[in-house]
Specification:
Shape: elongated
Distance between the termini: 50 Å
Helix content: 10-25%
Number of helices: 6
Length: 611
């Protein structure tokens, strides 16, 4: 018996024990001893019962703790099994929606099960890219434990989107330089020649070739899984044609269009609009005409500053050569010299006068005056006035058939030139806009030039004539939608079924030089929109570019995204700057370029669920 117990017994029974020394009778002594023994026995029994109760409680606590730990382990197994199903069963969403794995499955001395929910709309089966919250349940004894994790989708691209440039046949750098932060590849050969300098890694299913001073400065290899897969052209355009807006080819202006409105006074028998007379009288007359039914007649002139004029401020761009001609004659047979002039007023260069044509003499017979002049200014153009100047201060004269057009422009090419095409802007035809910025342009075998414009959208360019069509000048071009989130439909920048001639440069798209506002209301750039002409934009194509045919590259283009050609890709004497965007291949490929959806566990989403 411990010291504590001894002291407790003495406190309770000490008085009885003391009777042995007070002269009590023997019978009394015997009674006291009996009581002492009985009391001690009772204490021992109580202490024993307490010890048994403590052991039982400890055992119950141990069993409960074991059950909880087992249930937690089984809940973890449930999540592991759910993740296995996601990775290996293509119909997992349907089965989870139907509760296929929500019933208890035996494991060890307990059970596991799991369920899933769509936190977006509660429907597991209506979207392959909605996130999924999976709850795993573990049971052991009387313990139930729950753990959850969230899965999110990735919509990776097919393998042609893995390199910066991929040619289904041959890839060739013929002179010039190419710089890329991502490998380039070909399903056949990749070659540098004629002193081409390629600062990029390269892969080819055929051979890596070097010739005539060409150098690969990156790692080159012919190993790997070949060929790289490309889009199925039979279904590639289905999403875009279903969701796109058609631009009629015939609604586009021609490259050599006459910039002069009502050039021969034929628009109206009484109005000369948009022409106007400065300090004199101008009329549309049928008395004299070079062609058609009418011409412009100038009368009541008092100085050489009295003339026929038209405002062409919105028609011009700086640094461009223009060809101009006009038919002129005097009212009588007096010899008079005529010149078509242009007054240009800009914020940087002030007022300038350009002679657009030669200065020639005529009398009462028609004379054609013509010439070519490069028009330049700095800053913002505020006025451009074309007028017919006469050396006589008083002589009346006639004007007919005035022409002003870009010099040497081909006559059979339609253009997207100095335009803004976006979800908020369609300058062609009836101007129907597309909320996703998807526009479909079928050229019907004709030529097109896309130049000096800003496009925020996806252009489906079909059936353009392969010789004479081009993407040139300065361009700022990106899709209306660029997103790494698979729940948003990521869009390419350009798809074509014919050869693409990428001849654009890295010269900035300058509003002042191009005399156009490229960030109007509704089409901001970096969240900025205005009505002035003082901004500048980098020249580049940003997004997925694809053609079923060849790609020919010249000049100094910058491409940010991925370029894919379903045949040959050739860069000739180009300074080619390539910047890869992994979004399209790793996270969210555009329609037509998508591989199977994959999933990942959201970091930080793994946690215990408390009911």
């Amino acid at each position: 018996m411990g010291e504590f117990r001894k002291q407790h017994v003495l406190r309770l029974w000490g008085p009885l024990l003391a009777n042995r020394y007070t002269g009590n009778t023997a019978r009394r002594r015997r009674g006291s001893i009996y009581v002492l023994v009985l009391g001690t026995t009772m204490i021992v029994a109580v202490l024993g019962l307490a010890a048994l109760t403590r052991v039982r409680i400890q055992r119950l606590q141990t069993d409960s703790g074991n059950d909880m730990r087992n249930a937690q382990a089984y809940a973890k197994v449930a999540l592991d099994m759910a993740w296995h199903r996601v990775q290996n069963d293509s119909s997992w969403r349907t089965k989870m929606a139907n509760g296929t794995w929500s019933t208890d499955q035996v494991i060890g001395d307990g059970y596991y099960s799991f369920t899933a929910t769509d936190p977006i709309d509660g429907n597991l089966t209506n979207s392959a890219v909605h996130p999924v919250v999976i709850v795993g349940v573990g049971k052991s004894g009387n313990s139930i434990q729950k753990l959850q994790m969230e899965l999110r989708a990735l919509r990776p691209g097919i393998r042609c989107l893995e390199p910066m440039i991929h040619a289904d046949n041959k890839l060739k750098f013929d002179g010039g330089t190419v710089t890329s932060n991502r490998m380039v590849s070909a399903n056949s050969d990749a070659e540098v020649k004629n002193n081409a300098q390629a600062y990029t890694d390269a892969e080819a299913a055929g051979s890596i070739k070097t010739g005539s001073g060409g150098v690969w400065y990156g790692t080159t290899t012919t190993t790997g899984a070949w060929p790289r897969s490309l889009p199925n052209t039979a279904s590639l355009y289905s999403y875009y044609t279903a969701n796109g807006t058609t631009i009629n080819y015939n609604d586009l202006p021609t490259w050599d269009e006459n910039l002069i409105d009502n050039p021969g006074a034929e628009d109206s028998s009484i109005s000369i609009s948009p022409w106007y007379a400065v300090s004199c009288v101008a009329s549309s007359t049928d008395w004299q005409k070079k062609s058609g039914a009418r011409s412009f007649g100038m009368a009541f002139r008092d100085s050489t500053g009295d003339y026929l004029a038209q405002d062409v401020t919105s028609k011009l761009e700086s640094g461009v050569a223009y060809y101009t001609e006009a038919q002129v004659r005097t009212f009588t047979n007096n010899d008079v010299f005529y010149t078509v002039k242009l007054k240009v007023v800009s914020s940087g260069s002030g007022t300038q006068i350009f002679d657009l044509t030669s200065t020639d003499k005529t009398n009462d017979s028609w004379k054609k005056i013509s010439g070519t002049q490069t028009i330049t200014w700095t800053g913002t153009l505020t006025q451009a006035e074309l007028y017919v100047h006469s050396s006589s201060s008083t002589q009346w004269y006639y004007v007919d058939d005035v022409v002003m057009q870009i010099d040497a422009a081909p006559s059979d090419v339609k253009v997207i030139h100095r335009k803004v095409l976006s979800p908020a802007s369609n300058p062609f035809g009836s101007g129907v806009k597309n909320a996703q910025g998807i526009y479909v342009l079928d050229c019907g075998g004709n030529k097109i030039s896309i130049r000096n414009s800003r496009i925020i959208g996806t252009l489906i360019l079909l059936n353009q004539h392969e010789n004479g069509s081009e993407i040139a000048g300065s361009l700022n071009w990106a899709p209306a939608v660029i997103s790494a989130d698979p729940m948003t439909t990521n869009l390419p920048v350009l798809l074509s079924n014919k050869r693409l001639n990428l001849f654009f440069t890295n010269t900035a798209l300058d509003e002042g030089l191009r005399n156009a506002n490229f960030n109007p209301t509704g089409t901001p750039y970096n969240d900025s929109q205005d009505s002035d002409k003082s901004d500048s934009y980098p020249s580049l194509l940003n997004g997925v570019i694809y053609t079923e045919k060849d790609v020919e590259i010249q000049n100094s283009p910058t491409i940010t995204g991925v370029l894919v050609g379903d045949n040959d890709i050739t860069a000739t004497n180009s300074t080619l700057n390539l910047k890869y965007d992994s979004t399209y291949y790793e996270r969210n490929a555009p329609p037509g370029f998508q591989a199977a959806v994959t999933y990942y566990v959201v970091p930080g989403s793994y946690r215990q669920v408390v009911n």
